[in-house]
Amino acid sequence: MDPRSRIPGLDRLLQDGAAAPFLARFPRPRVVDALRRALDQARAGVVDGAWEHDPADPGPYWHVAAHELEAEAVPSLRPVLNATGVVLHTNLGRAPLAPEAVHAMQAVSPGYSTLEFDLESGRRGSRYDHCAGLLAELTGAEDAVVVNNCAAALVLVLNATAAGRGVVVSRGELVEIGGGFRIPDMLERAGTRMVEVGSTNRTRTADYEQGLRAGPVGAPPAAVLKVHRSNFRVSGFTEEAPVAELVAVCRAAGVPLIHDVGSGLLVDPAELELPPEPRASTSMAAGVDVAVFSGDKLLGGPQAGLIVGRAEIVSAVRDNPLCRALRVDKATLAALEATLRLYRDPATVRRRVPVLRMLTEEPTALEARARTLAEGLTAAATAHEAVAVRTEGRVGGGTYPEVAIPGWGVRIETKDVGRLAAALRSGTPAVVARVEDDGLIVDVRTIPPEADGTLCDALLSALEYRP
């Protein structure tokens, strides 16, 4: 007898008692598809011997289907414990949000909101009003607008101020911003013409003045762009035109100075024990016409592109059709507004914004956490050596590439460090750590202190030991 004749039909399996819990948890079409694949696997397997079960037994079919259904039910976008020591890990979503920002998103997401409605007048409002005042207050700008990321902000500003015209930019600032995209690409897509000045390592104020005289008669460049080289450093025989001098040059020529300051840092970097970094507030104080920066880097908020500057330029940006194409939703605005409000209290912002807290956590506190974690692992997993070690973290997110941040973590010695790292990534929650010299480094700087116990459990599970 052909063993395939003993394989039950799909209808029979769906009438089996085992079907009820699956049909209660998963959509019926998905259950049916999973069962069909299990039956196909059995039909091929009973012939070549790969199916080692009794073809008439419904249990194995449900086991195979359950494995597929459970795997499909796991969201693609999942929480991760970042044990790499890279604070703004781009691949892991950059800045973790403050509890206040998360609460604000949760408050407006389930239902309706005042996204574009003025409760006082009962008339239509503007989504751009929600964060504009706070951004102006914190940066010293006249006005502000929020779009979906910094690259979008730059393209929008360029298009609004210089479409069809030239934009003067230093050859030393034609950076790649990530994902293979470069400043020349941004200028082209914005509909502007790039006017390169200076050299890779030296660009003087006079070079910008000369660049502003270039171009067709009657159509000189319409703007100057200055880009902060945040993801690399040029050292040695270098020269860079000061922002204050560029402001004077642009005013004399009657064109706006656009400053891409990058990281969105709103506090003095000295407070974070970091080297000097351009900030929107210092740009505004120097007289820059418009600055753009990110919301999800050192500002510590959601992904957003923030545009601050002179009221007439921001108004032109707001009226540009691209602004609608690049606008943000209510959840982003809620999270950003809540994050910006935290900066109103300089005395507490460093401990309330997670990115700032991670960058300023005391080494003694990090060491104590690392030693506690190492002791917990050693006590429960005696076959593996776990020791507290000094680490070097990074800011990440394309900022401060040359700065190593001293910290503490745990080094785990194991015969197969690749297997351990993979096991951590496949766990719940997933843990991403760092492999270094055949050991696994778990840097506690980027782990919230309240998650230390969860991290320990995840490590023990991956090591196949449980406390």
Structure commentary:
- By secondary structure, the protein is α/β, with parallel strands linked by helices.
- The protein folds into three domains: 3-73, no CATH class; 80-89 and 358-462, Aspartate Aminotransferase, domain 1 (Alpha-Beta Complex); 99-352, Type I PLP-dependent aspartate aminotransferase-like (Major domain) (Aspartate Aminotransferase, domain 2).
- Helix content is 41%, strand content 19%.
- The protein has a seven-stranded mixed beta sheet, sandwiched between helices. A five-stranded mixed beta sheet has the order 2-16-17-20-19. A two-stranded parallel sheet has the order 1-18.
- The longest helix has 21 residues, at 28-48.
- The chain starts with 9 loop residues before the first helix and ends in a 5-residue tail after the last helix.
- The model has no long low-confidence stretch (mean pLDDT 93).
Summary, kept brief:
This protein is of the alpha/beta class and 467 residues long.
* CATH-level-4 superfamily name of the largest domain: Type I PLP-dependent aspartate aminotransferase-like (Major domain)
Low-confidence stretches: none
Compute the gyration radius: what is it?
28 Å
The average pLDDT is: 93
Q: Secondary structure elements and their pairing?
A:
Elements: H1 10-15, H2 19-25, H3 28-48, H4 59-73, E1 80-82, E2 86-88, H5 99-108, E3 117-118, E4 123-124, H6 129-139, E5 143-147, H7 150-162, E6 166-170, E7 176-178, E8 181-182, H8 183-189, E9 193-197, E10 202-203, H9 205-212, E11 223-227, E12 239-240, H10 243-253, E13 257-262, H11 280-286, E14 290-294, E15 305-309, H12 311-319, H13 321-325, H14 330-342, H15 349-352, H16 354-360, H17 363-380, E16 385-396, E17 405-413, H18 417-425, E18 430-432, E19 434-436, E20 439-443, H19 452-462
Parallel strand pairs: 1-18, 2-16, 6-9, 6-11, 10-12, 11-13, 13-14
Antiparallel strand pairs: 3-4, 5-15, 7-8, 14-15, 16-17, 17-20, 19-20
Helix pairs in contact: 3-4, 5-14, 6-14, 7-12, 9-10, 17-19, 18-19
